[in-house]
Amino acid sequence: MKYNTLFMMMMLSGSAMSAELPSFLDANDINNAEFTCLGDAPQYSEKDQKYVDILWDETLQYLQSYAVALTNSENGPCLNSDEAMYDSTEGGKNMCIMDRRDMKLLVKNIYQVINNPTEAKKCFGAREDVNWIYSPGGELAQKSPVAKWLNRTTFNTFFDTKVTNKDVRKLGKEFTKNFTKMVTGDEIKMPSAFPTDISANTLPNLWAAAGWFPMYAEESKRNDKNYNNIRGGYAYAEIFGHWGLLRIDEINNQKVGAEIGMTVQSVDTLYPYHNHAISEIYYNMRVPACTNEFKSFAVREDSPLLTTVKQDDKMRQVQFDAGQHNGHTMWLSGSADIDPLMYFHQNTIHAFEVDGSCEAKPEERAIVSVWARSNADDKRNDYGTTLLCESAKNPGTPAHKDEVIQCDLTKKKW
Predict the structure, then answer these.
(1) Exposed (0-12), middle (13-18) or buried (19+): which is 64, by Cβ within 10 Å?
(2) N or C terminus of the chain with fewer C-beta within 10 Å?
(3) For 99-203, where are the alpha helices, taking DSSP H only?
């Protein structure tokens, strides 16, 4: 791949060289970019700085490879762009992901960072003072000098002290026990669009020390519509974004909407139908044990398959018959090798199912993804909220695949 030599030279030189820009970016917006941090610039002693530097170097590698993947057109019909599935109905619908303005801006923000690493680093910190992000613990953390230095509260302690549901706690402890095996090993594979491996196999400190959040595990009204196995078997970490390690408010006086990180969802789970008011993308990083192990569902808010049942000036409540006779055909299979990239427009209703029946040791396996949201700066659209759908017949309970589901879609403001 044409990017490999330049990429490795840049990394080996401590990011002293500028990365090659996609043709749709204006170098004048990239070179000598000016950064405004979100919050005060973190300060560290010389002793601690060496650990922050390790985390920063792995962050740059992560971001650089990600930007190259999104703009890589070698595997499809796109120009300066990877191809993404955005709707799983009607046999599936794909698009060139860089046709989206929000994706161009996300990639632009990444290149502004990696081409101005000294200035961008002023907005970077280990987030050691944040008490709601955690260490997965286990072998991953034990082998990471950065994770040991940070000494974050572990998943084990989190599930023991913060989770009251006994079933969720038990599932969470199993998730914790196997987390290292889930994110490392031969089953983890980067999609071919990536010039380098940015998984935990190659960037162990970043994956061990980024700070993970099991976002559904604690009790909340939202979780009435959730499944216990997802509550105990799902976590995400944010690298770049408002809640992450690299917290930038503005670049060249323009708000930064990028949120970039990774997710882990254990097998034998259905991440329930849900939606949110900002766009989101996933790259699948797992080799499945069988063809249809990883399946995804996505339907856009303007699809004729959705029926509006009521609305006000803020929300539109819709229903979708997930149990219709051809409903199973609306779930599409994907993996690191086949259709690895998914893009969900604002208010797209989507879900992920992982079938562990073909896994020899399902408790040790998960779907692992590089994840991002692209316009998180627009707080008018409640950027931080994921809304779970519900059963139309029994509102307030989880939506199943064989029934009519009901979802609240945000009426977006521009």
Answers:
(1) buried
(2) C
(3) 101-114, 117-120, 138-142, 145-150, 155-161, 166-177, 179-183
**DSSP one-letter code for 222:** G
Are 252 and 29 within 8 A, CB to CB? Answer: yes
Residues 306-342 pLDDT 10s: 999 999 999 999 999 999 999 999 999 999 999 999 9
Rounded-to-integer distance, Cα 190 and Cα 375, Å? 25
The model's pTM: 0.94
Q: What is the mean pLDDT of the chain?
A: 94
The residue type of 261 is G
Q: Is 86 helix (H, G, I), strand (E, B) or coil?
A: strand
> In the predicted model, is pLDDT for residue 4 greater than 80?
no
Task: Collapse the DSSP code of 408 into the 3-class scheme (helix H, G, I; strand E, B; otherwise coil) and give the result.
Answer: strand
Answer for the pair 347, 412: CB distance below 8 angstroms, yes or no: yes
pLDDT in tens, 159-210: 999 999 999 999 999 999 999 999 999 999 999 999 999 999 999 999 999 9
DSSP per residue over 28-62, as a string?
HHHTT--EEESSSPP---HHHHHHHHHHHHHHHHH
SS3 317: strand
What are the respective helix, strand and coil percentages of the chain, to the nearest 5?
30, 25, 45
